[in-house]
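Changelog-adjacent note: as of this version, every example in the card shows the full chain rather than a window. The one below runs 98 residues end to end.
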Amino acid sequence: MRELIKIDGSTVYLCGVITKEKVFQLRHSLKNLAKEHTTISLDMENTEYIDSASWGILILLNKELIEKGGIARITNASPLVHEAIKLSCLKDFFEYSS
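Full-length structure tokens:
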């Protein structure tokens, strides 16, 4: 089974379907990473779906990073993630590149 959340340095790879069942793991992983880095890349190339609870965690992470002078960047957004960002105006919350 493939890992849904993989961390390499300051890059977080979100793969597959990210739902509320993984929110605690996502939150814990990102909180720990934010202690070490002020800029975090969220690579979503292999993200098939991400629910609203998980988006909420990512928004809170970004807010925390901004307060420390950093930022969370969404990179390599899959077509489905790109559409979700566009439809829900999430591009206002993140640095974003598809």
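Structural remarks: The beta strands are 5-8, 11-14, 16-18, 39-43, 47-50, 71-75, 95-96.
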